[in-house]
Design goal:
This protein is α+β, with helices and mostly antiparallel strands. The chain folds into three domains: 125 residues, no CATH class; 122 residues, Jelly Rolls (Sandwich); 78 residues, Phage tail protein beta-alpha-beta fold (3-Layer(bab) Sandwich), CATH 3.55.50.30. It is 32% helix and 31% strand. Strands 3, 4, 5, 6, 7, 8, 9, 10, 11, 12, 13, 14 and 15 form a 13-stranded mixed β-sheet that branches. Strands 17-20-19 form a three-stranded mixed β-sheet. Helix 2 crosses helix 3, helix 3 crosses helix 6 and helix 6 packs across helix 7. It is globular, with a radius of gyration of 25 Å. The N and C termini lie far apart (56 Å).
Amino acid sequence: MISNTHIPDDLLARYVAGETTEDETRQVKEWLDQSANHEQELVRFQRVWETYIALKPQAGVDVDAAWKKVSKRVHSPQSAADSVPLYHSKSSHKSQITIHTSFNWRAAASVLMILGLGWLGYRFLQPIEKQELASVIKTQKNTLEQMLPDGTKVFLNQNSTLTSAADFNDETRTVTLTGEAYFDVKRDETRPFIIKANGTEVRVLGTSFNVKAYGKRVSVAVTSGKVQFSTPKAKTLLVKNESAAVQADTIMKLPELNFNELAYRTRVFVFDKTNLGDVVASLRDGYHADIQLSSRHLANCRLTARFERESLDATLTVIAETLNLKVVRRGNSILLDGSGCE
């Protein structure tokens, strides 16, 4: 099994080139799931691949000889000392992250060997080292709060990926989201903040809002300021306490903002004569827990309550006592059981 800190460069190169076996592909995916930094390393391979795929292979290239030349340069003190900024801003140099290029030379050399470009390709790699790279933030079974270089705060829900464009902080601040995240955008009227999510675009200057894009359905909920929400065929403006969803290129404004959908970040739940089926669905998403009802007839029970930053156990105890239910734990699952409500 591949460790948390290293994966063979030639394996990553073959993965980018689409030449891995089924078992090797599984190994790479497991390695990617271990850390968001691993995704950044993969981005480097992909950028090298995109650059060299446009070049035509040279006939008669001695790959072995080229590898010896590359290896000699890889391990030279000068190449190991170089570094490349992950973020770059024309207006600010305060938020920069560096990645040492001792990895990059070997990564590039591995891709070159796959493509058969040898020493010619290696010589061409040097200007690529100076190119700006995208940044990737990724969550799995956890949530994560992150500050972007422009001062924007992002809170990612589980199983989400946020990719910042290589030119982030230049004329626009563009990111791509898969999953769900709450944004508190630093206001800048000269550079709009743009989120691309599954064919939609959210554009703001500075405001707070939530974007959910796990599948084909994308929704936006605004908690302050104004947000422009658009598809290639439609566009709408949302203001505080408004929300909308996109399905099949159609934007539908929702009747009211459901603040319980933001509970994964706020841990605040407000229920007003809410049926128990919806209560459980909100708690399941907010606490990231497997909560079920023992039978369908419990779904029509009604609950009026407010929970603010309570533990899951405390919340379930109050619900059980209020509706005369029992909390049954079965492994990682939680079951609400009872006779129902009249």
